[in-house]
Structure formats: C-alpha cells, structure tokens
Specification:
The protein is α/β, with parallel strands linked by helices. Helices cover 23% and strands 32% of the residues. The chain has 4 helices and 12 strands, in the order αβαββββββαββββαβ. It is elongated and about 75 Å long. It starts with a helix and ends with a strand.
Length: 159
C-alpha cells in the first residue's frame, strides 16, 4: 500500500510541473491557437505561424503550461534561413536556380497568399523547403492569379 502511495505521489509531482515534450505540429498549434510564447534556442522569440523551421534540425520541443511558453532547441543553432523580402536578391535566385528575369509579384506559402507588405514578417529555413516553383507570366495569368500584372508567382511548400 505504501509503495503505491509513493508512486502516486511521484506521478502527481511530475505531472503537475506542466512541462512536457511536444512534436512540431503540436507546437505550431499551441503557438497559433493557444497564444504560447515561442523561444528558439532559449533566446530568440518567434511566431511559429510565420517562421518555418527545418524539422530535421529540431532536437527537442518543450511546452510549459504554467508560463505558456514553448522552447524549441535545434541541433544546429544557426541554420541558414531567409526572409521573404529576400526573394528578389541575387543570392536567393542563384541558390534556387532562378534567372534575374524572374521578378516575383506574388508569393504563395503552403497554399496561403502572402501579402507584399507582410513578407518582412515571414522567415523560412532553407532546409525546411520541400518544393519551390516559379509560375511564369502567361501560366500565372491562365491560373487566374489576379492582381499579379502578368508577372511571376513563387510557390513555396514546407509541409
């Protein structure tokens, strides 16, 4: 009887601490739907709704229910990433084998159109990208990408 009571006490102590490991999908849900504060490597605060991480570089994710904080620890603390405002840069175009004539007017990220004014808020780790496609001029018009003025559309998939 005493032994069972001891195990119950230990279980209560550990379950009440509020810190648990979660996967990346659950972390995104807690950040977006529950308003958790998210820290990357215990120092940089990020919004997971607009920050796309390379899941292979995640060592551990913990969620603290008491402080509503997510801590994401990466294996490589400084992975290469880019801001969506950098898509017109020569370096970005070279990395993804785009030509200098590939002027991007619209960006679609995981099926969501990213407004030009909001591009500065989005950050993507290069290794998080599963697919990147430029739909050019006439094809973009045929797909009825309204408001693009006959320019190119960049589609990025991370999931």
């Amino acid at each position: 009887m005493r032994r069972n009571s001891f195990y119950i006490l230990i279980f209560i102590l550990f379950s009440s601490c509020g810190i648990r490991s979660v996967n990346y999908k659950k972390a995104r849900s807690l950040d977006i739907k529950k308003g958790y504060k998210t820290l990357l490597n215990k120092e940089t605060e990020i919004e997971l709704e607009k920050y796309y991480l390379d899941t292979k570089n995640i060592a551990e994710i913990t969620a603290d229910r008491k402080t509503k904080t997510l801590n994401i620890f990466q294996s490589n603390n400084e992975p290469e990433s880019f801001n969506l405002t950098e898509i017109e840069s020569e370096e970005f175009k070279k990395r993804y084998e785009m030509t200098n004539r590939d002027n991007i007017s619209l960006v679609v990220l995981n099926g969501i159109l990213v407004d030009k004014n909001e591009r500065k808020d989005y950050r993507i780790e290069h290794n998080a990208i599963k697919s990147l496609l430029v739909i050019k001029d006439a094809d973009a018009t045929i797909l009825n990408c309204s408001g693009n003025g006959g320019k190119n559309v960049l589609i990025i998939l991370t999931e």
